[in-house]
Amino acid sequence: MVGTFEVDEKIYLEPCPFCGGEAYITGLFIPVNGDEINAYAVGCEKCGISFMEDWIYDNIVKKWNTRIQ
Length: 69
Ligand SMILES: [Zn+2]
Prior knowledge:
Elements: E1 3-6, E2 23-32, E3 35-44, E4 50-54, H1 57-66
Antiparallel strand pairs: 1-2, 2-3, 3-4
Bound molecules: zinc ion.
Zinc ion binds near residues 16, 19, 21 and 46.
């Protein structure tokens, strides 16, 4: 089961490419071989999309902010 945690870091995220809503970033605990590793997902609260995940916080922020629409 995937758990979540709040990401405290304040970082600028571009608005949602689909609805212009505010983006959020969530931390995920992913179970792997009886252990847990952290990953991150970016999504939009307004339209409910959550389509990007990455192990590295900086990577996912960069992906979201520079994505091709
Ligand atoms: Zn949206």
